[in-house]
Amino acid sequence: MSIAETAPTPGEIERKSAWVDDLEATMGDVLVGQKHLIHGLLVGLLTGGHVLLEGVPGIAKTLAVSSLAGAVNASFARLQFTPDLLPSDLIGTEIYSPKDGTFTPRKGPIFAQFVLADEVNRAPAKVQSALLEAMQERQVSIGGQTYKLPHPFLVLATMNPIEQEGTYQLPEAQVDRFMLKLIVTYPTPDEELTIMERHATTQEPPKVRVVVQPEQILECRRLVDEITLDRRLQEYIVALVVATREPEKAGLPELAGQIQFGGSPRASLALSLTSRANAFLEHRDYVTPGDIKSVAHDVLRHRIIPTYEAEAEGRSSDELVSRILETVPVP
Known about the structure:
Helix content: 40-55%
CATH topology of the largest domain: Rossmann fold
Strand order of the largest sheet: 2-5-8-1-9
Structural class: alpha/beta
Largest sheet: 5 strands, parallel
Distance between the termini: 26 Å
Mean pLDDT: 86
Low-confidence stretches: 1-5
Radius of gyration: 21 Å
């Protein structure tokens, strides 16, 4: 079947994406600023891709995730990762019943539709591995029995860039399993004043309205898959990712000694899917180069590993991505 036969019509996209503006508005009633964070969470929601959030404490990462779950009317579980956490605390275990001598499965918090893994780098490798396996396979095993995780299923993990003592850094190969890595920044002074006006009170903070149902999200995911991505834009995505591996061939010889490892084909797949999701959020049935550029940093920043030379010069992976976007020709 050709793309023309399967592509959704502009009217269909506009109708099916009508909830987006309403959801952003209701989240804006609770969150001040953080538009990029909200947008990134929606991209993850529409693609089924897990999201890694990095930012200092107190900038509403947890509030953003719980608010999104409330607006989608989805089940939500928050798990604070600590050094003494066990895999069974995450996925569940079997409980022995002395009455009849049987074991009954007790499912863990991973069985929620939205799972917030708070400070994921504070748990040991076994717990991180259990989480990442559930993310990839979307199922877990308890006592030899396999259980499917709910749909939609989304893991949103947070990392604190300060206080690295007593942490267990996620290996780079495992971080690649997150579709997006969002950097959450401090609010502006005006936004912080608004936060004080809204939340510096003993009253219970406002809650989001239910805007959309999980079943609608799954339907919208199918529409996202059908959004038109022109062949030239597919080639542009591949060119961007290849430039992270072989920058000198992309006209960036100065970056040849600054990138230790570039993006894998998983990066190309993620850029393709997230750019379609971005088009959906803009109520369009086709992808533009702007869609690709708008998600490129979030998709690539954790997939590019700078060399020691780049770090010595103060060049971050974000700067390397920006340089690649400036150089690779746009179709």
